[in-house]
Amino acid sequence: MEKANVSAFLKKYTMVIVLIIVTLFFTWKTGGRMLLPQNVNNLISQNAYVFILATGMLLCILTGGNIDLSVGSIVCIVGAVGATCMVNLKMNIFASILIMLATGLVIGIWQGFWIAYRRIPPFIVTLAGMLMFRGLSNIVLDGYTIAPMPEKYLMLFNSYIIDFFHGDGLNITCLLVGILAAAVFIIITFRGRRAKVKKGYAVTPLGSDIMKCAVIGLAIMLLMWRLAQYKGIPNILLWITVIVLIYGYITSKTTVGRHLYAIGGNEKAAQLSGINTNKVYFIAYANMGLLAAVAAMVTIARLSSASPTAGESYEMDAIGSCFIGGASAYGGSGTIPGVIIGATLMGVINLGMSIMGVDANWQKVVKGAVLLAAVIFDVESKKRAK
Q1: What is the value of pTM for the model shown?
Q2: Which residue windows are transmembrane per the record (predicted)?
Q3: Residue pair 74/311 in contact by the 8 Å Cβ criterion
Q4: Partners of 306 in the beta sheet?
Q5: Which of the listed residues 40, 54, 97, 104 has the most CB atoms within 10 Å of its CB?
């Protein structure tokens, strides 16, 4: 029984194990610098846009392996609009945020219309969008960089949660939040297991759930321990957490989420069962535009500027994170937690190689190889299943 539990755990949490191994490898190669408190904080802040964009990209991929190539350009134009409003026009920051969100949503609706209701291939629509919105962002910026962003705006994303207990060199609030988060995760896991047992559903072996809670709980505590040794919980982590929880709920507990998986599994069967597939496609791409706007807000806050080159290759990071995190290249499978693991793995590889001084071109080679390996693993797994 114990062997079965271990086997089930290893099969289900392969990417978690890979993430741990890669992190330990870079920690060893960097002489421990990889896990310095400041580097752990940098890992979160530098990859915030990846977490946000990958969450939205998953919804597009679930519909049948479709992707959105325009998200980097949307980040650029939304950032340009926001910076123009806040810096050049001196508008209220909250009004500017609403304008940025509206801009991203309108772009998402525009692309969603052509993809969902006119059935233009997503690759073509978003490729066109990538070119159009990059050009429009340069027109808005007139080729210049707008900086700096207002201090009040930067505080929304770049500041840290106050330590209410005023720990000496250690953020007590951060540690308590970590303990609470780990406890909540364990409670939710076992409540969900008990509910499945009551309804007669199949459940994973008990040992597998215990191992999952132990690994995830330990990871949460280690993260909070390192953050507590720096400045505590960064605001951007709260933004990421809220987005992940919302979309984790949408994909796993709502009708829209079930429809996304159904369309990715078999679109014709989904149509015959009464699912409005056009509407689901539209929601996926409109939502992608909205989350790209949120990523733009985070990006211009981190850089304190909006430039014509902002957002370059962001779409590749988001797509790569989804596939590395277990999303199928054919659609119909993938989870928000998996995407977050994939994005974290990409971030760890980037940070580790940067600390080691690896050339940027070799970093691209490694990231491409990791992405290819993840997709090959997915394809071969499906072949064996058949």
Answers
A1: 0.94
A2: 12-31, 43-62, 69-89, 95-117, 124-149, 169-190, 210-227, 233-250, 280-301, 336-358
A3: yes
A4: 146
A5: 54
